[in-house]
Amino acid sequence: MKIILREAVERLGERGDIVTVKDGYARNFLIPRGLALRASSGNMRTFEEEKKQHDVRENKTRRLAEQFAKKLKSASITATVAVGEEDRVFGSVTAQAIAQLLKEKGFEIDKKKILLDEPIKALGVYTIPIKLHHDVQGKVKVWVVKE
């Protein structure tokens, strides 16, 4: 059976692809979950209309994310940490701590969107990337200073 994918399906195709699958897979899994439409001329027109609406929404969210990234770039946060001998940091600055500091500055960001490879364990200035949209990444400057 030929179908039009409404969403990206792993190991099958991307959104908008027309693929051939077994009848049972299409009828019992893909179509009931809203992942696909049967490939017919009427469904092609329906999908094209959905695609236009999806693109408009996607462009709007991308523009909002880009505007937010510009605001975020001008922001700078300071994390104060306790230090010992030779400026060794006790503990570390994590994505959770950065999210909390950003919240205090008025930026509501989920800690999962903060792309921190490992917690910061030294004093200094760091530029931390934040994923705002699948195409847009913002950056925030984090100052780690001693108490």
Give an overview of the whole structure.
Helix content is 36%, strand content 23%. With 147 residues, it is an alpha+beta fold. It has 2 domains: 62 residues, Ribosomal Protein L9, domain 1 (3-Layer(aba) Sandwich); 80 residues, Ribosomal Protein L9, domain 2. Strand 5 and strand 6 form a beta hairpin. The radius of gyration is 23 Å and the shape is elongated. The model has no long low-confidence stretch (mean pLDDT 92).
Class from secondary-structure proportions:
alpha+beta
Tell me the total number of β-strands. 6
**CATH class designation of the largest domain:** Alpha Beta
Domain module count: 2
On the 0 to 100 scale, the average pLDDT is: 92
Contiguous runs where pLDDT drops below 50 for at least 5 residues: none
Q: Supply the CATH superfamily name of the largest domain.
A: Ribosomal protein L9, C-terminal domain
Residue fraction in strands: 15-25%
- CATH architectural type of the largest domain: Roll
* Distance separating the two termini: 66 Å
Helix content class = 25-40%
Q: Counting H and I runs of at least 4 residues, what is the number of helices? A: 3
Backbone shape:
elongated
Element order: H for helix, E for strand: EEHEHEHEE
Task: Kindly identify the CATH topology of the largest domain.
Answer: Ribosomal Protein L9, domain 2
The main β sheet shows up as: 3 strands, antiparallel
- The strand line-up of the biggest sheet is 2-1-3
For the CA atoms, what is the radius of gyration?
23 Å
